[in-house]
Amino acid sequence: MSSNLLALHGLKWNPFVSEVPLEALFVTPEIKNFCWRVGHLTGQGGFALITGEPGLGKSVALRVLVDRLAAQGDLTVGILTRPQTGLLDFYRELGDLFGVQLSPHNRWNGTRLLRQRWQAHIEAALLRPVLIIDEAQEMQPSVLNELRLLCAADLDSRCLLSVVLGGDLRLAEKFRDPDLLPLGSRIRVRLLLEPATPRGWPSACTMPSPRPATRT
Predict the structure, then answer these.
(1) Does 170 map to a domain?
(2) Burial classification of residue 180, based on how many CB atoms lie within 10 Å of its CB (0-12 exposed, 13-18 middle, 19 or more buried)
(3) Whole-model pTM?
(4) Is residue 22 part of a domain?
(5) Does residue 211 lie within any of the structural domains?
(6) Domain range for 52
């Protein structure tokens, strides 16, 4: 869109491109509440989930969340870029995100080093590091379960990491699988994005049914 068209419509940025800056985005009350709750989750650790149909703004909501978490200067936020990978590459990327030299073939030592790094962060900042995973419906069940076990400490009484999973509705369906029920039960914060409706208009599911005609 040319600058002349932007000026004609009173626009500062092109609304049809993906690079719209955060200050130009409308943040709904639901997304604000989700960001606030995830901010509190960093004090305890655990899992958060954002789901919705494609195109409803899950990735944009995660951008807003990352920006707000970054305002907490002592908080480490890592963004996983390849959720579809297997366990070895998963450990390689975790090591790169959190500055730990890992040998992917030695998962025991990798787990120990990552936990030590996260524990040091907790002691210094009193906050859990945050791992953001977009398109998490592409993650293999074995990787999701490895992440759950990796975060747990002291016989599952403490969590060393805060994890935010974003994905389409297939991700929510994954947690119905018996193998992933333990992870699904640990999700403390949820946000389901739905299509916007005109303000003040009842949605289709809340429209009153017509009264049957009566004879006089």
Answers:
(1) yes
(2) middle
(3) 0.84
(4) no
(5) no
(6) 29-195
